[in-house]
Amino acid sequence: MKHLTFEQIVTLVKRTLLLQLLFLLVMTIFRAALFISFTPTSLSDVPMNEIVAAFWFGMRLDLSILGFAYVLPVLLFIAAAFLKNRIAPIWLQRALFGYFFVVYLLVSLILAADYAYFSYFGEHITLWIFGIFDDDTAALLKIAQKNYNLPLIFAMALGYTASLYLTVRQIICRPLLPAKKSHGIVGQSTLLFILLVATFLAIRGSLGIFPIFHWTKDISGNHFVNLISRNGVFAMAKAIEQYKKSQNADQDFIEAMGFAGHIEDAFKIVTGKKEVDPSDLLASLKETTPKNPLLEKLKPHVVVIMVESFGLPITKYQSESFDILRSLKKHFDEDTLFTHFISAANGTIVSMEPMLLNLTARPGTIPYGQSIYQNSSFPTAAAKVYRKSGYETTFMYGGDLSWRNVGSFFSKQGFDSIEGKAKIASTLHLKREDFHDWGVYDQFLYEYILLKLKRATQPQFIYAMTTNNHPPYELYKGYKPKPLKISPELKKHLRGDIELIRKRLYDYQYALDMAGKFLDAIKNGELAQNTVVVITADNNTIEGVMSYDNFAEESKKIPFYLYLPPAIRPEKIDTSVPGSHKDLMATLYGLTLSDTDYLSVGSSLLDDTRLHCGLNESGIVISKAGAFFAGKPQNDAQSACDRYRRAAIAVTDYIAKSLLKKRQD
Questions:
Q1: In whole angstroms, what is the distance from residue 364 CA to residue 620 CA?
Q2: Which positions of the chain have pLDDT values less than 50?
Q3: From its phi and psi, is residue 631 left (phi > 0), alpha (psi between -120 and 50) or beta?
Q4: pLDDT of res. 528
Q5: Are 200 and 194 in contact (CB under 8 A)?
Q6: Alpha helix (H) ranges present in 537-628?
């Protein structure tokens, strides 16, 4: 057996460094592809030096990843230097070849997943990527088959893998030539020490107090430029960490938001009260609706519709040739529409839960219904207020109730009935063509709601979540869409596959048209006199294919539409008040219930004595003085909302943790 020499180790060090340099180039190409594919129109105002700085910072982050990857080879080189008389060169070459191929393939898969995630959500990987496993995986696979050329994607992936394999093999496994010079003990030790220090510096990426990955700084005032500098691998690592912590409720948001040891201050900020009872903090959240004899007599039905992915930004391009709203437009024009309302979070379940629990979203956590809280009954749950007031309460979903454990979880949150696609299908005698991959087409969900309202013998509170306007964007066969002409201005704000976007927009149109037709049915019949309808959304996921002139101001906006029977309609409502999902039910209580107590982290948007701020878990905050990113207020009004955000998250965490403590006691 030929023994390994130190000179051959040096040769392998050089080869692996060349390999690292080549893969750094590959990682930069991934970043460039992200930049080219999703560049927003607002980037025209960004100085070129900021874009260059973003790429430079991104390369340093990539180098840090490669530094981590190089730790094991460095240790192998050091061990081989001591054991070279017992190791054959081919053994070390094979070990290095296998290691680098697997590591580079894994990193490539993460970067590809990050690209796909960015194309849909407009941000790098977050813990919601685990929704692939928590969600309806079979439906997601069907979506991929229908919307993407999977054979081509697999062929490209296979070609990339083969190229990677051959490149790593060619560089590492070439025969090692006999040494032309030798290194003494001092020289060998010096080279290995330099290699170790260089690897450490590459990992750290900085000579400052913190390593580069510990505090990813902003490069620019432009949100997209800052995102380009980020790294998908570090994003994945953070997502895994958050996912593990959130499953077991290990995250301490009270401390993170700055209220450790004085949580009562957070309750004071949220409620606007000067004093709260430290022994019963939950009681400080109690509000009472005004006494209203007309509401006591009428007891109107209340229907809250959450339309899948209905973001407002696309509606600003509404026109005769781009009639995205269809029959919903006249209702938006006639009735109440809050125009500065944002979603609690960027996914369905993580917006649904805060709204129906009267809480705000805690950033970077998994749904309550899929965590240690899945068997908890929240005292702030919205439906409990209506049930206590004599309403029959129904949670309705156009899909399977096993999705995200919604059936089990919301059965504990004050709903008398939990009804999904099976109940809808059996009641309406639906056929196979009346379903798409995620559930029943929206028109049948609305038909079922109308039937339930007409058959009702007591006041109804119905929450319903639709399933259209979701990949794979399939239209009901009997529906005739109205042509959507994409204007040059809109096209300038779109990015990605235009044909897939067009398909998405027609499903968007269908979803909004069905919501409008439902309102037609309500307002053109007897239900118009005794039914309140809310139309809102879970999120604005179309932001993944849209760019914005003002990302913070536009990207999270969703509707909060209200139809109120004339008899109980206030003379004037200020629809410019900022808010988010935490405020929706509190606003609704004041309009539909008389002299009724409720608990809520949010507040009624009709209450002009309260501070109103819209909060999204991504850190976007909307105030009366405009939207901003958390921690970066630009004026007094924004500073007040920044404090409010921290307090609301801390209070929400206190409520959740109190349930665990109560269970343990």
A1: 14
A2: none
A3: left
A4: 98
A5: no
A6: 551-554, 581-592
Asked if 471 and 450 count as a contact pair (C-beta separation under 8 A), the reply is: no
**pTM, whole model, 2 decimals?**
0.79
Q: How far is CA 311 from CA 339, 469, 630, 638, in A?
A: 11, 11, 21, 23
pLDDT of residue 147: 64
pLDDT in tens, 335-369: 999 999 999 999 899 999 999 999 999 998 889 98
CA distance 10 to 112: 33
Residues 256 and 262 sit within 8 Å (Cβ to Cβ): no
Q: What is the pLDDT of residue 275?
A: 95
**CA 388, CA 587: separation in Å to the nearest integer?**
18
Q: How far apart are CA 51 and CA 38, in angstroms?
A: 14
- The H or E element containing residue 599 is strand 597-599
DSSP class of 327: G
Alpha helical stretches, state H, 83-231: 89-121, 131-134, 137-147, 150-172, 185-204, 223-229
Q: How far apart are alpha carbons 209 and 440 in whole angstroms?
A: 55
Listed in sequence order, the residues at least 6 apart from 152 whose beta carbon sits closer than 8 Å to its beta carbon are none
Gap between the Cα atoms of 532 and 588, Å rounded: 9
Instruction: Tell me if the bond preceding 472 is cis, omega within 30° of 0.
Output: yes
Distance between CA atoms of residues 325 and 516, nearest Å: 8
